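Inputs:
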Amino acid sequence: MNKTRRIETTVELVRILVAIGIAYLIALIILYAISDDPIFIIRQFVLGPLSSQRRIGSIINLAIPFTFTGLCFCFMYAVNKFNLSGEGIFMFSGCIVTLTSIYLGKSGLPPVIMIPTLLIMGALTGFVISLIPAYLDAKLNANIVVVSLMLNSILVFLSIWILKYGMRDPSIGSLGSLPIPETARFASIFGKFKIQAGIFIAIIAVIVVAIIFYKMVFGYKMRVVGSNPSFAKASGINMLGTIILAQLIGGSLAGIGGACEILGNYDRFKWSASTQHGFDGLMVAVLARRNPILVPITSLLLAYIRIGADVVNSKGDIPIEFITVIQGIVILLVAAEEFMGGFKKRLIYKAAKDDLKSDKEIVVQEILADDESKTEARKESME
Amino acid sequence: MPMYTLDWFANFGFSVLRLSTPLIFAALAAVISRKAGMLNMALEGMMLASALAGVIISGLTGSIWIGLIGAVIVGVLAGAIIGFSNLTGKTDLYLTCIAFNLAATGGTVFVMYLLTGEKSTTSAAIKAFTVPSITIPLIDKIPLIGKMVSGHNLLTYLAFLSVYIVWFFLYKTRLGLRLRAVGENPKAAGSVGINVTRIGYISFLISGILCGLGGAFMSMGWVSFFMKNMTNGRGYIGLSAMNIAAGNPVGSALAAIFFGFSDAFATMIKGRGGNFPTEFIEMIPYIATIAALVVMNMIRMNQKRKIEKGLKQ
């Protein structure tokens, strides 16, 4: 029993590594094939992101929003609901937080009050938005994927509308909001690394989520509901409540992510299209196999590849877009049950066979021992 | 204020039909997948890939028709990739589609850059080809309707014809019946000897043909070049149209035309300038979908409750 689980975990790990390896290899082959100076470009892609403190800082900065949306999708996945609203929430929360900060900025609140208020605002935005698909799914059985996808598009237009008519700065040429007040912005820390202070919030979020998942009754309930609904129902777990609450927590995390991104890296809100952070978070969660503890690691990995592509883009003539193809391949390979599935089955089969063999030997020995004792007993009776 | 003359109405009607074309193709592609029991979220990426393929292949060969066939083939290939990943590789369908859309958004820009050196559009680099427009002989003489209905791109007429073809395929052919059987209950269908995997593949391939035509219309009819992310959510709108009509081909097409109408309306208001927030018009397809889902499921829930009540008595 435990043997099978151990094999599954090992294969799972190997699978992810192989998938990333294959994708990385494809990236290198593409770079090699289309570049005039492949060695230089590949070195830029592999080592470029680590070559300066500034770039390492930007890897970490990029990993912060991925961590938040990744954690968001861990919750959605835990209860087996494909709620994609994290994508829209991320952008919309950035918009709402900017709007709030502009209004609060006039009152001259100190950062100690300002920043927590804005974070709560972001979380609240996510909470309310994710309630829509969660509720419609739970109460009316409306397809959660469709509802959340539609919701994402609505949120994009809503954000643009708020930006245009609620907080547009007419003094700048492009479409952008009024500047976010200084008191609301995160400081950048660690000197030359220029890491945004949102990293502390991200670390706290990971720890809290890990505690919820693995140390709290709610986390256990959630995982039971996700992996075995019939058992959860039979053991009297409040199914609807657990499923909805998990999605609300997930949505709040995406909201905090949007708030951190806008307060940490921007001086105004100027997103005019969906940021794709939600779908990146989905990939992070898939790669982390829905384990929140692994989310920061896979976020860093994705951010490393992204910054690598950025470096290549600025150095050579290679368009950064090819990285999304690589990303697609990684998702497919990691999510494909059949990818290395035969390998897993063989291993489990072999282990079971070995078990059977040793079991048989034990049985044979038992029978022999039984026989011996019987013959001895017979001998005794004969005597 | 422009004058709301007969001409104006004719022009508006014309642009409604034109803007509906890709939506109808997308909606029908979604219908085929839905009837086979699947939610095809990858329409967006499939259309985008076909749109680029049409431009490139027609540019390379110098023939519109080879370009059009190329676009359809790429659409079918895209369907095959998704089918392989989902049916043979046993990957979660939603994840497959999201991954495919991701790859198509970036991949089309990448291929475009490799071939033309441009990152946003092929309009300068590749010679433009468009599928010809057709004037319908007698009808174009009718005052208002003539101008609305006649003179459209061949693919627009094909879109309307496809509604009938898809309906006929689903409800009047053996394969269509099997496809619906698989969609209703794959295990029951499998138990009577229908090859469920093969039907799944067929549904993705047909979906691919329709997406190929829709994509070709975008880059070889609507405009004559490929532009970065030019489908701009039309795949998702097609998906919504299908959802509103619960997979009925005719209803889905009507919903698609309604969304084409709101699209034309938004374009018109934008064109007039002024300060009207067009964002809310652009939201219509998405809000309508959610509202339709809510209403439909409420009715379904009520029926279920009534049946349960009846059983108890």
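Chain B has twelve helices and two strands. Flag for discussion at group meeting.
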